[in-house]
Amino acid sequence: DIQMTQSPSVLSASVGDRVTLNCKASQNINKYLNWYQQKLGEAPKLLIYNTNNLQTGIPSRFSGSGSGTDYTLTISSLQPEDVATYFCFQHNSWYTFGAGTKLELK
Amino acid sequence: QVTLKESGPGMLQPSKTLSLTCSFSGFSLSTSGMVVSWIRQPSGKSLEWLAAIDWDGDKYYNPSLKSRLTVSKDTSNTQVFLKITSVDIADTATYYCARSLLPGYNFDYWGQGVMVTVSS
Q1: CA A70 → CA A6, A67, B50, B108, distances in Å?
Q2: Is A87's Cβ below 8 Å from some Cβ in B?
């Protein structure tokens, strides 16, 4: 199985901050990496697919990068509505999610 | 407009079989490249992909749960079903169905989820 490790598990930041969330795979996943946002009590929402492709309707302050085993989700200017838990997901070899990063406002 | 909605028993006893239904509209599972997956999430925890069925009727299962899972679809291609046998407390979770359009399991649309509690 491919294991996905997200860091940090909790991140506190202020409105307007540039925020970076990390995801590390246990082996090369060839950029088959998605990011999902889950707000409290809601289903996850697709933000980024295949490392750096912004899903339709997602604000441009969200971006993704990475290759091999290391990937990042960046929010260029944190907004209050971005408070959520963010999950990475690999679909290179079967399908596994990371444990999530909870993003809070400072 | 793509929508998915899960339904299930709410609560069931250990050792029973859990039956879930995903009803969807706005797309057809007969469309080439279309896939519907089941994903679950215990309260406060991460997500686990369980199973998928594609437009051709091919089925895919999480290897760690494969012996307990059966995914199927109806002939009208508007519903997908999941059965989990021999449930125990560890199967307590919110169960989601989600759509993907290949290439890639991107889960671009999700249902609202259905909470299932396993308890004696």
Answers
A1: 10, 6, 25, 23
A2: yes
Q: Which of B87, B86, B11, B72 is nearest to B36 (CA)?
A: B72
Instruction: Please name the member of B49, B104, B113 whose beta carbon is closest to the beta carbon of A43.
Output: B113
Given CB atoms, is A89 within the 8 Å cutoff of chain B? yes
Instruction: Report the C-alpha dihedral over residues A94, A95, A96, A100, rounded to 10 degrees.
Output: 160
Token output for A43: 């289903």
pLDDT in tens, chain A (106 residues): 999 999 999 999 999 999 999 999 999 999 999 999 999 999 999 999 999 999 999 999 999 999 999 999 999 999 999 999 999 999 999 999 999 999 999 9
